[in-house]
Amino acid sequence: MLQTTDSENQFVVDILTDLRNEKFSPLAWMHFLRSSWEKSRATARSNPTLKYSWIQTTVLIGAFALAILIVNFIVEGSISTLRLMPGFLFFVGWQQCDLYWHLGLNRQSRTGKLLHVIGAATTITLLRGLGASYLLGRFFGGIYTPLWLLLLVFLCGIITDFLDGQIARRTQTQTKYGQIADGEADFCLHLAIACNFIHEGILSPWFGLFVFLRFTIPLFAAIASYFLFARPVRFGSTTWGKAAGLALCFYFLLLLAPDQLIFLTTYLNRPLSIVTLLLLAIAPLAQITRNLRDSKLR
């Protein structure tokens, strides 16, 4: 976890220590979840402006989700929309619940000051998560997704990924939750694209496994440190991680290129896939190494 205030950090350490001392029993997990939920509600009650901002953001995301379902109904009909809805609504609901659960992390990364408004940068990140939720909903609903639609959602994801960082830096609203949400949105979007590629035989399953492990290895390492040792860890990008993300974007764009560019895709496919795989393998190791180094410095 990113740095929090001393009292919050101690609260997190205390409930994690209790969870470990109780040997991760079902009752211990109930205590852990209840304590975490009560902390989230306390944050919302003591910061009504922040809670209201969360409601506004949730209504906005809900309006976009409804618009997507309406357009999908018009274009593809009721059967496709009904198959899409369970997965799509699950992921959208999960995203907004996750935001509420972590309202206490709506803090400036540099100062740790709690911001009382969900900023534009975080909202744009959530919109990228909405696009990923749509693709995942289609995949789990067994709905074929044409390449032009994958390209459209992916390009929107790239644009929002650029905008949220620029806006956060210009407005000094880089938050701890925003950094986590940015990584989650990237993971879900890349995973959704990879799953659709694998389903259509465009990408091999082992390449998709590399994409999955690139994000989950650091996550599992963080969870292990968090729950087994009650030791918060730092989330954030590394140089290797940025390079891996950039290479993966270029490779996905190459696979989504129109047939008119087949001469280019045929020439670049293998070398770019090799470079991407190497970076995907190095990136999580670099993340773990930096977390270990940072923990020793603390």
Structural class: mainly alpha
Unreliable spans are 1-7
Number of DSSP strand runs: 0
Radius of gyration: 20 Å
The whole-number mean of residue pLDDT values reads 83
Elements, N to C (H/E) = HHHHHHHHHH
- Main sheet summary: none
How is this structure best described in words?
This protein has 298 residues and is mainly alpha-helical. The protein has 3 domains: 1-44; 47-200; 203-298, no CATH class. The protein is built from 10 helices and no strands. The chain has helices spanning 6-21, 26-46, 48-76, 78-101, 120-140, 147-170, 176-199, 205-229, 239-255, 262-297. The longest helix is centred in the last third of the chain and has 36 residues, at 262-297.
What is the secondary structure topology, with strand pairs?
Layout: H1 6-21, H2 26-46, H3 48-76, H4 78-101, H5 120-140, H6 147-170, H7 176-199, H8 205-229, H9 239-255, H10 262-297
Identify the notable features of this structure and list them briefly.
mainly alpha, 298 residues, single chain
